[in-house]
Amino acid sequence: MVVSANTEQGSVREPGPGVETIVESPLRVLCLNYEYPPMGGGAGNATRCIATELARRGHQVHVLTSRLPAQPVVETVDSVTVCRVWSLRRSLHQCGLFGAASYIVSASLELTRLARTYRYDVYHFYFGLPTAILALYVHFVLRRPYVLALRGSDVPGYDYTKWYMRPLHVLLRPLSRFLWRTASSVTVLSKNLQALAGRTDPNLESIVIGNGIDSDKFPAKPPQPGSGPVSLITVCRMVPRKGLEYLIDAMTELKKDGIVLELVGSGQEQQRVRQLVRERGLEAHVILTGYVPAEKLYTHYHRADVFVLPSLSESFGQVLLEAMSCGLPIVATSIGGIPETVRDKTNGLLIPPRDPAALVAAVRWLAANRQQRERMGRYNAEQARARYTWSAISRQYESLYYRAVGAGPGQRTAG
Question: Which of 7, 9, 244, 414 has its CA 20 to 30 A from that of 75?
Fold first, then answer.
């Protein structure tokens, strides 16, 4: 719910009445991420959900992010004040080098103003690169503590589908190590990402804090009687590391079984995927839905029987939790942090990356075993509600904030 909005620079408003104060000594927190919903993917969504939970607990939370042309410069949403700055971002789901660099320039100016005005107790940076470059100002000038959340692409070796990532990581390796070491705490999404970060800095002490899910926004689908061809769904940003070409290859075989796939999402690979669908004659079996707002996504999950994610690299996979919460079994690649969420033959099937034949076999097995996929779906819905709550995750970050400022929840240090 939008509480207030203002397009005038400098008109940041305090959270209004009705905030539930749970902690004795609220903190002033600035979260920084170059992506924030509807922009970006899992990291932006995590920023919003964690910020909202922290505000609900009584903390004063601001977010500094990028701005699309139609968005207000400042608005307060669910008691979180969102401040947006200009950048050369390409589109909703494409940032690019210029988009990231221009955000750093614009955000550095706004960060100076916000820090002077609100005297934040702690700063929370999402992504070591590019966002945490701004932590240099926080560390050297403001001399305030910061928490750094590594998300995947900011860790060397995670994703080299973009040609410039490898040389960029090599060039900026000393900076990355410095930013990690001067942070009060460093968090990672999975044990896999933790191990990967350890290759860059063997002495790094990081904490695994995954993502969560709002199960009210992604309710379990009701039982669906009847039989027929199994329907698949994939929800993702259409970028090279999602491996969508291998899914399209698999559909050339699965169409013989009458299986239909819905692809939800947009991004730089959208036109290429559309072309592959045409070339393989899959127009009747692959539905390209495009971008769907988060509040409407559950209706698409409910129309499907199986969720598929053929990623080539994945630190966590927020969409896995969405699918689980909606009661879907999962077919996903056994890479990155996915096996920490999807356990083979328990709540889904794991397959090798870049292997359309394995994907076909997994989908056909689930299609032929309705009781198994329904059992997996029920298990996933239960696990999503029991293990992956944003309130629990926000409390973990809250404890890191208090540790950073050197105080307990009832004794915040003077700012």
Answer: 414
